[in-house]
# Entry
Amino acid sequence: MNAYEFQVLFGAVNYLSMFPTLVAIPYMWSIVLFNVGLDAFNEENTKSMQAVFLMLLIVIVPAYVATLMYKYTSYIAVSAVQRIVLVFSCALVTGLIGQDAFPGKQFVATMFVVDVGGGFAHAFAHPNGISGCFKDCWQLTKNTPTTPFNKALRVESYVGMVFGFMAIVYAAVVANVKCGIIIVMVATFVVFIWTGFHANDPSETPTKILIAHRLLIVASLCYLSEVQDFNVLNDVFRAMSVSMIGAIVSPYLGAIVSGVSTLYFYKLGCDYIMAQEEGSSLPLIWMGLWGVVTVVLSYGWVFLFYDEYDDKQKKRVMGTNWQDRILGFFCFVSGAALAKAGHFSPGTVGEPVIYLLPPITIWFTLETKMLNHMQVGTPFHPSWWMEGDLPRFSKTDWVNATFGIATALITVVLTSYAMYAVWVAMGPESYSFNFSSEDHAWKFAFMHGMTFIFHSGFWMIFASSGVPPIGDGKAFRAFPPEIPTPMPCRPHDCIPVHKRDLLMGNALLFLGFTSILDGGEYDLYLKAVVAIFWTISILSKVKTHYDGWGYKYTGDPDPNGTVTPKNKKE
# Structure
């Protein structure tokens, strides 16, 4: 056993001893926690620390023991990176928002020294250093599951990690529980990392050990929720228990439970946000948070996968990244517009925006990334396939359908509703260039900014995509019926015009959100800028239609032969 493997054994012994020693010898921990003193221990923080240590014992120790038994060297790398990235992030947020067990942040400080610092020490002990540790993890993600069970495990783990992330957000925003983020992280996200390892690892999956481990986790979570009582976190523990039990029956069932739970806790988060006093900045922070998540996910995707694509793929990847950034920004500024107008509270037109816009934005952007990976087109992005670069559809119609629904929701339904909400909040009189009141300028900017975004999306339908079917099969083409664009332009020429509209619209929304326009001194400049923006937008569209008159696509609109039988004969 080398030093790299020995640290797993050392860690297992440590995690095994933490819970019982805290219960039996709390004085020892009062010294370990930077000599915080036994008098600093009270019922609340002691219960929270016991919950953290119990979940470490139940979740981590069996994984470490199995790693040593079955020589899971890849999981050793995963566990080290997990401590460096995940534990560091959660400990940092715990300290920043005041969820530490002690006012002096001794618990978080100990985590940084022991857990995060230990993670770095473990990673450096890898035969190829810390870079080798990260490379092992990266290589593991590239493995393709070889059995139906492992494929199901992968689905369960990926959906479960999304649930884990949402549970952590819920613990940070809604739960006023000491160390709540840390407890939830270990109880959810770390569990699914272990499951994901087995899904991608080429060795035989120890199904009996996984079942026994799931049952241990369920028992511990039930103890926390039904005996210890952690207030609103009890719902997280119960949902995770149901997911684990479902996964024993089938990992797909566990994934379904985790997926539904993700939406449920997002809804609870929105309920909490909307219940704040009028004038609270929390709704705007909530929208900004999900905008940031959208952008960070996009940059993470580019960082991890960009070099593996060919030149055409790279161009689509960067186009998708631009789209993600503008959608993330829109998530924030649309909320900002409604908040400034006083329509971002319960019972106002802005209420549905806070519930629907962030999750649908993330759904749409993630599915776009998936299509990039699968190297298939979509009828909603004609530039991908109209000149033969990619097939128009995925071979799997459920992929086509889910992306089609997400696209319809983000580009038609939610954009239209956001336009309606801004219209109600600002009033149609806000379009007028003939104003002089201080209160009118920011409304003018909001109204025109939202209209830029709204009209440009529908122009793309008119000029580029038409109303396409959501799938390739006959059943999926039934509704909505395909309606070709009446005045087709070259899709690649439409994109710069659409991007410019979105930039101008979001810029005006952001300008209206700031206090720059509140004094009235820039009214004339604002009117001139908006007039120039509209002139650029209209002339660009006229030129695009003129240049693209009579355009015919060269890609195959029926690549899989599901409507016409040509490919079936081949």
